[in-house]
Write a structure and sequence with these properties.
- The protein is an alpha/beta fold and about 425 residues long.
- It contains 17 helices and 14 strands.
- The strands form two sheets. It has a seven-stranded parallel sheet with strand order 3-4-2-5-6-1-7, with helices on both faces. A seven-stranded parallel sheet has the order 10-11-9-12-13-8-14, with helices on both faces.
- Helix 3 (about 50-65) crosses helix 4 (about 80-95).
- The longest helix has 15 residues, at about 50-65.
- It is globular and about 70 Å long.
- Mean pLDDT is about 85; it is low at about 380-390 and about 400-413.
- It binds adenosine monophosphate (AMP).
- Adenosine monophosphate (AMP) binds near residues 50, 51, 53 and 308.
Length: about 425
């Protein structure tokens, strides 16, 4: 199938050809005709599948055909500023030299600059929920002629607690509109939200639900917690990995790991919500330019990072939420290129690995890397050589049979 056969505007066909897109990805093949036909969509697609172009191209096509613009026709809501910037950049890229304006609005940056941009005309507004509400409450924007609402990474928006904001925004939008709902994962909460939003939607699932990106090789190393950063530095150094995205669970953990890796001689920076927007942009630009070799990020901060052909993703810690694993490794193996996702798993994290295995529906082969084998004595020592409790000491002194005589419980499997 070609882009031309999808019936897109010739100007857009020119742009995609110039960008080197030869064939529409599966999500594009399924979504583009539906969006062109004004159908509501419920699409299951993770980052890296080409989902942005799947909605951006047909929406731009419709704007191009409508002569009566001068109003916001498309609103894209994203959970994070990075994703907002990335989606906005895609709209700009696909409408290069065309009479269409995309504006991006997110918190943590000057509202006046964004207002100035809006005043110059806006066909497509890409925004995070908080900043959009601020603009709406202050009557600074008019969405009364909106035609299409896109919720991008809806699952993440719910995870981040944006549901109330979204509901308030929805009240200000015309009831007669098209709504496109994109989510990497589905659960009951997502379905509940989609039911309130969508009318007779077309359900598109390019991959089966909750699956990981197919082009990604997933490797799991068992390692002691205190040896993880040494193992990571070793992998990056010995295998000459460039552009490695590393995940930690906390902002503090991200900072600490970045410092340790820098001490090992690997140019590393951390990116997370405590950093200013300017600092985040700089770190990201340095990472993209290859000045920073490893970027340590929290799940939230990593959402909007779009780097073509990002080859390596490392889970320095497994996420508490198994679905985050899918989001994380979706950062690599993008649009058909191969990627490697490595998870460093300490013994105490094994239950998180089990959760992920259940979600993706297949077991992992857990490997040991020579020189970094987990110290099993540490684990068994702590269990067998623990101090006897007061009760046990008293029982022994009195000659009462202790645990040995009892039915075993809590046995390790
Ligand atoms: P997305 O899933 O929207 O984040 O897109 C992932 C990457 O795939 C982006 O860098 C796009 O530029 C690229 N891309 C999107 N569609 C295509 C296509 N049909 N062929 C090749 N690359 C694409």
């Amino acid at each position: 199938m070609s882009f031309a056969s999808l019936g897109l505007h010739p100007d857009l066909l020119q742009q995609v050809t110039a960008l080197g897109y030869n064939t529409p990805t599966p999500i594009q093949q399924a979504a583009i005709p539906a969006v062109l036909a004004h159908t509501d969509l419920m699409a299951g697609a993770q980052t890296g599948t080409g989902k942005t172009a799947a909605f951006a191209l047909p929406l731009l096509h419709r704007i191009l055909l409508q002569k009566n613009t001068a109003c916001i026709q498309v609103l894209v809501l994203t959970p994070t500023r990075e994703l907002a910037q990335q989606v906005h950049a895609s709209f700009v890229k696909y409408s290069n030299n065309l009479p269409i304006r995309s504006v991006v609005a997110y918190g943590g940056a000057s509202i006046n600059v964004q207002l100035d941009a809006l005043k110059q005309g806006c066909d497509v507004l890409v925004a995070t929920p908080g900043r959009l509400l601020e603009l709406l409450m202050k009557n600074l924007i008019d969405l009364s002629r909106l035609q299409t609402l896109v919720l991008d990474e809806a699952d993440r928006m719910l995870d981040m607690g944006f549901i109330i904001d979204i509901q308030r925004i929805l009240k200000t939008l015309p009831a007669e509109r098209q709504t496109l709902f994109f989510s990497a994962t589905f659960n009951d909460e997502i379905f509940a939200l989609s039911k309130t939003l969508l009318r007779d939607p077309k359900l598109i699932e390019v991959d089966s639900r909750n699956t990981t990106a197919t082009q990604v090789e997933q490797r799991v190393y068992a390692v002691d917690q205190d040896r993880k950063s040494a193992l990571l530095s070793f992998l990056i150094g010995s295998k000459n990995w460039q552009q490695v995205l590393v995940f930690t669970r906390t902002k503090q953990g991200a900072d600490e790991l970045a410092k340790e890796m820098a001490k090992d001689g690997i140019a590393t920076q951390a990116i997370h919500g405590d950093k200013s927007q300017g600092a985040r942009d700089r770190v990201l630009a340095d990472f993209k330019a290859g000045k920073v070799r490893a970027l340590v990020a929290t799940d939230v901060a990593a959402r909007g990072i779009d780097i073509d052909q990002l080859q390596y993703v490392v889970n320095h810690e497994l996420p508490y939420n198994a679905e985050d694993y899918i989001h994380r490794i979706g950062r690599t193996g993008r649009a058909g290129s191969a990627g490697l996702a490595v998870s460093l798993v300490a013994e105490k994290e094994r239950y998180l690995l089990t959760d992920i295995e259940k979600l993706v529906g297949e077991p992992f082969i857990v490997q040991w890397l020579p020189g970094f084998e987990p110290d099993l004595n540490k684990t068994s020592n702590t269990q067998t050589k623990r101090e006897p409790s007061k009760k046990e000491r008293r029982a022994k002194a009195l000659g009462i049979p202790g645990k040995a005589g009892k039915k075993p419980h809590n046995r390790r499997r």
